[in-house]
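Protein modeling request. Please complete all fields; requests missing the sequence field cannot be processed.
Requester role: graduate student
Desired output: 3D structure, token encoding
Chains: 1
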Amino acid sequence: MLLLQQTTPKRTVDITTVIGSLQQRPLLSKDLSVLWHQSEEELDREEQEEQEEQEEQEELEEISRRLILQEELLFSHNSSSEDEDQLLREFEALKLKIWMAIHNTFTWSSGQLDVLRSAVASIQQQEAQDQRWTCRPEDRRPVWRPLHCVRTHNTLLQNMVASRLTRAAEDESTHSLSSPMKRQVCRLGKRVKDDLLTVARTVEACYPPHVDILNIYAGFYHQRFSARLTELAASALETEDCSYLLLWVNDLYPQTVLKHQELDGKIKTACLGSLLRNQHLELLEDQYLSHREDQVKLWLRTALKIEEDSWWSGDTPELIDNYYYSPLAADVIQVITSSVTEFHHVIRDQSRIQRITSHLESFLDSYECSMKELVRSNHGNVDSVVKAQLVCEQQLRKYITDPTGSLSGQQQRRCVVTLSALRHCGYMCLTRPIHTLLKVCYSHLWTPVWLDGELPVVDSLLNSLSRQLMSLTDLNAPCRESLLSVVHQEVVLQYMKRMMKTKMKSREQQVGGAQRMKDDAQKINDFFRDGGCSAPPWLGDVLCGVAEVLRLQEPGDVQLELLSLARTFPDLSDAHVSALLSLRTGLSAADVRAIRRSLEENRLLEVSTSHSPPFFSKVKVKWINNKINQIRL
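Delivered output (633 residues):
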């Protein structure tokens, strides 16, 4: 056991005082030597300078190792108070050099990092020496033990971090942001990011892995950054400052700083937590959402008001690439997109996005009402306005139905219903003359002159229709194709409705009418295909299928054709089947009952993989119930 002389009073140096003085002026190594190595004994000046020069060139790690060895030798036998006094001064000088090296952590160049590495090694040596002395009685230890180098090191780092963030907050070099609060938060965040990257790139290599110096620094920076942002959050913030603060807390700090590619996976983010407590975050988020909702409502209302004023003033929409165009949809999408994008970066709970997107639903309801009112007014510019609004409807539909969008499934469905009503309103406005034309032309179907081929009803209809559709050349191409598809369906639908009202008197009428139906179906398909409408093939198949039901004579063949038709068009109800059978002659009541019973039993046994959209459900036959009752008698 080493002996310890307790004759020397304990002498220590206040590190904070020393570091504070170092911040006032640069301290040269020679100054340190004069300050800490001046002995009460008068040494020869040349010998003292030689000793100082030698120590300056000696690495801190070597000095630390040498002093530990001297300490062991000194206390292995009785020592004089002068020897202990000298060794104490040398330990204090060593500590000062170590703390200087640590204090200059962020100013060392890559070529000077050996100084920091040596200082860290010295701290580890002294900490280990502290542990060795703890095994000995307190009255038999050197008065300077324990040195607590690790604890002092961490305290110094904490103070360094606080000082660096304080200076960053007070720096006024950043002027690009709109408010002092934004500039301060930005400077703080940038300082945190830059310093942590410096630690990861250079400083970390100077420490042993078990020290985990990066997470020590991250913890200190997190604490100070959090404390300052908490102070700011407690003050009355303007809305823009509020959103910027939330942006840093919920996005930039956790995603851009802590998950930087050089830091991601190294920093224990779960241990750090959020920069602000929940109570502060909830207040800020509610303030932000309330303001953003008011803004979105105002922006959408203003966009629609500008559009409505243009309509009612008689203005004609702008022509772009030879079709009418309105900026309304682009403006609306921009409002929602920008708000949603900011929301994703500012708010933690993403389900609250509906507080923003719900206003799109309200806008569409108002938009639909305004369009219907305009169409009813029959203003001189209504056709051109409708054409421009159909382009808007298409753009809004694409945005709303995007699977990667922010609208919930229910919101999407409600919006699509409103958009469909809006589009239907526009289509009805543009096709009003066509409906009148269909009614007049189709009145001649199933007349003797039509059956004989003397009156080309469909040819006459299509010629008139071609002239009507010339007015759609200034409609956006995709919208025009969609409208043509609707017109195509309407032409076929009205044809079917007219046929259902026919009462045939002979087998010849059935066969002749069936062949005429097939010819008409082919002409209609060719007309719309040549006009640029890529209509689905089922529009032609439905007329041909019904024509086959009329043409075939054997009950079994009729049954098979109806079964095929029912599987292709699931909305072909029993009532429609009865109506089709009632058009035929030559079928007994027993045949009709057998066919209907077979369809009920077999139509669902094999379901077509390519169902057609609803068609027969749009064919209303008023006298159908009376016919069904008659057949059942």
